[in-house]
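Support request from a user on the community tier.

User writes: "When I paste my structure tokens into the form, the page sometimes reloads and wipes my input. The last time it worked, I copied everything first. Here is what I submitted, just in case something in the input itself triggers the reload:"
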């Protein structure tokens, strides 16, 4: 679960349309989207969006904005599990996680990746915690240390990220936890594609529900191309632009 503002829809009299969405890990396919009320934010829109799904056996991932006690409780009550990132907006929880005995915890997973002009190493540790006092239904805390090196400049960036999950050690191992965290970060790639390939933030469509409708169509196009096996959406868009019959075939439409 994550949200994105359609920045070009902003006017002097109203703020930009904001659209929380639910996307599948891996395929980046958006399966639901909801517009935030004009005088609200993402948090109240999160629960109604989740209510559309049968969460039994499903793991919900979300960024720090949605690391809310009520949200976690509702996910578990619906039969699901959560993995939620913890940052400074939850100061007490973030402080508690930082104080856990991480130095005594063994390194459980290490991932190296290269791409987009950088090399990245992610190291993961997991600490079992008592459910309830730390965060509702949280039974494991996660520490991920990321080290990025810009391959052109040599500049090094390090960052420590914390998360909590209701998944028990018997239900998932360190490698799967790392995959879930990385899968959630992949939604940032979806936002990047919408902005860079489809220039969403530059769109001046502002009237009524049109910004949301256009964002839905962009999500649909990206999802279909991902399901067709494309990894480069810009190349896929060029491919289908000159072959409309191939594009309609994705929708199983015959002309």
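"...and here is what came back when it finally went through:"
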């Amino acid at each position: 679960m994550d949200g994105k503002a359609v920045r070009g829809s902003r006017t002097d009299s109203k703020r930009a349309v904001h659209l929380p969405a639910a996307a599948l890990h891996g395929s980046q396919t958006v399966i639901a989207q909801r517009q935030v009320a004009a005088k609200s934010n993402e948090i109240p829109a999160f629960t109604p969006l989740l209510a559309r799904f049968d969460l039994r056996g499903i793991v919900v991932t979300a960024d720090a904005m949605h690391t809310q006690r009520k949200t976690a409780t509702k996910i578990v009550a619906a039969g699901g599990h959560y993995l939620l990132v913890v940052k400074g907006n939850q100061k007490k929880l973030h402080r508690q996680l930082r104080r856990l005995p991480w130095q005594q915890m063994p390194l459980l997973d290490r991932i190296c990746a290269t791409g987009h002009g950088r090399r990245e190493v992610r190291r993961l540790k997991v600490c079992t915690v008592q459910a309830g006092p730390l965060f509702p239904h949280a039974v494991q805390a996660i520490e991920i240390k990321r080290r990025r090196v810009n391959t052109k400049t040599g500049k090094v960036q390090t960052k420590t990220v914390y998360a909590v999950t209701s998944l028990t050690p018997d239900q998932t191992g360190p490698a799967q936890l790392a995959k879930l965290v990385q899968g959630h970060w992949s939604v940032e790639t979806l936002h990047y594609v919408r902005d860079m390939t489809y220039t969403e933030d530059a769109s001046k469509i502002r009237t009524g529900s049109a910004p949301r409708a256009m964002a839905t169509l962009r999500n649909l196009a990206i999802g279909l191309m991902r399901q067709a096996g494309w990894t480069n959406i810009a190349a896929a868009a060029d491919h289908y632009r000159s072959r409309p019959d191939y594009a309609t075939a994705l929708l199983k439409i015959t002309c």
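Agent notes: The reload is a front-end session timeout and is unrelated to the input. The chain has a mean pLDDT of 89. The radius of gyration is 20 Å. Escalated to web team.
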